[in-house]
Amino acid sequence: MTAGGHGFLSALPPGPRDQLLGFAHDVSFPVGRRIFDEGGAADRFWIIRSGRIALDVQEPGRGETVVETLGEGELLGWSWLFDPYRWHLGARTRSAVEAYEFDAQQVREEIDEDPVFGLAITRCVAAVAIGRRLRAARTRLLDLYGPPGGRAVAAGGEAP
């Protein structure tokens, strides 16, 4: 298997990237497929090779609300890395998807056994996946609840 030129895999150093890809299995999902639900066991994760996946939350009376859409090269799921290993969001394909799938337990065991691999994976998940997800959530919240006219108010109460 080869790594793509961008995204999560390209953010990993070559050694840990090759080590991680040693655990990968190719999977395909059709359009509209529910991959996981909020609160479910986070026992796998994926790196998207092609296609689009929407991350969502269930809102009472509204159903699924899309928080972010992921595409090629992106990591789907990081809850597998942190106890209690439960999904914080749900995921559904927006198009047909090809991805690398990983068994979370196997990767966590390798993280515990190899500190260099563990540090590389943890840093990459934190920087690439969690950081991006937080920025996307902030932008989405500003879109939904920001002041009219598109000018967000800074934390001190003044417009930037």
From TrEMBL:
Gene3D superfamilies: Jelly Rolls (2.60.120.10). Pfam families: cNMP_binding (PF00027). It comes from the Bacteria. InterPro entries: cNMP-bd_dom, cNMP-bd_dom_sf, RmlC-like_jellyroll. Coiled coil: none annotated. CDD domains: CAP_ED. Transmembrane segments: none annotated. Residues 8-96 form the Cyclic nucleotide-binding domain. This is Cyclic nucleotide-binding domain-containing protein. It comes from Streptomyces sioyaensis.
